[in-house]
Specification:
- This protein has 220 residues and is α/β, with parallel strands linked by helices.
- The chain folds into 2 domains: 153 residues, Ribonuclease H-like superfamily/Ribonuclease H (Nucleotidyltransferase, domain 5, 2-Layer Sandwich), CATH 3.30.420.10; 44 residues.
- Helix content is 45%, strand content 14%.
- Strands 3-2-1-4-5 form a 5-stranded mixed sheet, sandwiched between helices.
- Strand 1 and strand 2 form a beta hairpin.
- The radius of gyration is 19 Å and the shape is elongated.
- It starts with 17 loop residues before the first helix and ends with a helix.
Length: 220
């Protein structure tokens, strides 16, 4: 399903919970939002999360994870985990991203996250593109993490979960400064790749990682 139920629309000024309220009026109370973090990174896992919010317990200060400070994201993460009806997160390691390809890994991660929720969703909202095989009708919402509360909550859970993994990986591979850039391509990260070559947490299907590996091989 690619549209809201018949007769249900969401006004532009409906606020962050507009989609959830519109679906509730159609009798679809258990609404899951799903989003991912780490799709564009060249190192570390891809993490997907799914969240079913409790309509009676709105999350104060909730917003797209990219618009929140790290401290605010951490605070929202704790409240979401405590007050939401159900929260799940799935980690797709870098080797599996290489094996599946990033788009297929992304879809698979979102499916797994929704499947692991404690309650069966009546409807699923996803950020940006549709995902089939979720076991429930759904809707792809453009910039969903900015306009739909459940997707925003999923974006927070996915990003905080992944950021904490990258900080942990920094302890094992300090030369790459994963704690700062979280595995995304930056000048500092690329310089470390050129100097040291990739580590096991890099995605070898990515061009810049493959070139760095080949560069280090040429030096031998």
């Amino acid at each position: 399903m690619t549209v809201l139920p018949r007769g249900r629309t969401v006004r532009k000024d409906a606020g962050l919970y507009g989609y959830e309220r519109a679906l509730a009026r159609a009798g679809l109370v258990c609404v899951a939002g799903a989003d991912e973090a780490g799709r564009g990174a060249c190192a570390g896992p891809l993490v997907a999360a799914a969240v079913v919010l409790d309509p009676a317990r709105p999350i104060r200060g909730l917003a797209d994870s990219k618009l929140l400070t790290p401290a605010r994201r951490d605070a929202c993460f704790d409240v979401i985990c405590e007050d939401a009806r159900s929260v799940s997160a799935v980690v797709i390691e870098s080797r599996e991203v290489d094996r599946l390809g990033v788009q297929r890994a992304n879809i698979e991660a979102l499916r797994r996250a929704v499947a692991r929720l404690d309650c069966q969703p009546d409807f699923v909202l996803t950020d940006g593109f549709g995902v089939d095989g979720l076991g429930a009708p759904g809707l792809a919402v453009w910039k969903g993490d900015q306009v739909a509360a459940s997707i925003a909550a999923a974006s927070v859970v996915a990003k905080v979960t992944r950021d904490r993994i990258m900080v942990s990986l920094h302890e094992s591979y300090p030369a790459y400064d994963f704690a700062t850039h979280k595995g995304y391509v930056t000048a500092v990260h690329q310089a470390a790749l050129s100097e040291h070559g990739p580590c096991p947490e890099h995605r070898f299907s990515y061009v810049n990682v493959r070139e760095a590996q080949e560069g280090k091989s040429d030096e031998l």
